[in-house]
Amino acid sequence: MSGLHLKPHKPDQDGKILGVTPESAGWKYVGFEVYSLKKGDLLERKTGKNEVCLVLLSGRATIRTEKKEFNGIGRRMSVFEKIPPYSVYIPNDDRYQVESLSDLELAVCMAPGKGTYQARLIAPEDVRKSDRGSGKMSRRIHDILPEDREADSLLVVEVFTPDGNTSSYPPHKHDRENLPHESYLEETYYHELHPRQGFAFQRVYNDDRSVDETICIENRDVVLVPEGYHPFTTVPGYESYYLNVMAGPVRTWKFHNAPEHEWLFEKN
């Protein structure tokens, strides 16, 4: 299996089914975990040097930090309800406790923090919704933690791609510190599919093809994007959800389009 492709495993004693650290990914900024918790489970962690965004993929919970408590949050029972999630932002040098009030799928998004902002709830009404692209390139966007919302490093967004459509497309990349034209951002893709027995494809490649991998995605897989273009495509009959986490030295998303495919923007 590709070093850019992670499969979920059975829940460990804490309920974790997926884990990415900067050390395991071979990069500097992004960490990512997914927990599958049962009703009544408790998850307790210190944030350490990282700021954290907890995204309730599905289910309900009470989340406590050192100074804040968010009681009974969560609405959707599946990401494919396609309503924005409840999320909680937590700064570095803090801690959190998650008490699951139902079966709970929880994503933990991490990147270096500077202690600039306090813990806060990101409610569904705080999430910007938009449609991007047209025709077979159309998809729905939920901006959970975009660059115009308070955070030190993290950028978090979820994307819904209809069956038979292609997203993160036309191909783009963000792997060079070349502002204002392009920013360096590491990125993880956490995938879910509906129905869950489906599959999809993601390609990660750079200009000289020293990186060029096409990955068959199944439900709950993670793809790492350390560099290069990274388009994603569904197959007929299976729609897609993915959660993107990005971070780098500067908190801005400036991307470079693959020149040979820029003509596709005329269709948008």
UniProtKB/TrEMBL annotation:
Gene Ontology annotations of biological process type: inositol catabolic process
Any Pfam family hit: KduI
Keywords: Isomerase
Domain of life per record: Bacteria
Keyword Protein transport: no
E.C. number: 5.3.1.30
Cited InterPro entries: Deoxy-glucuronate_isom_IolB, KduI/IolB_isomerase, RmlC-like_jellyroll, RmlC_Cupin_sf
GO molecular-function terms, A-Z: 5-deoxy-D-glucuronate isomerase activity; glucuronate isomerase activity
Gene3D superfamilies named among the record's database cross-references: Jelly Rolls
UniProt-listed PANTHER family: 5-DEOXY-GLUCURONATE ISOMERASE
Name the UniProt record assigns to this protein: 5-deoxy-glucuronate isomerase
Organism: Thermoactinomyces mirandus
Taxonomy of the source species: Bacteria, Bacillati, Bacillota, Bacilli, Bacillales
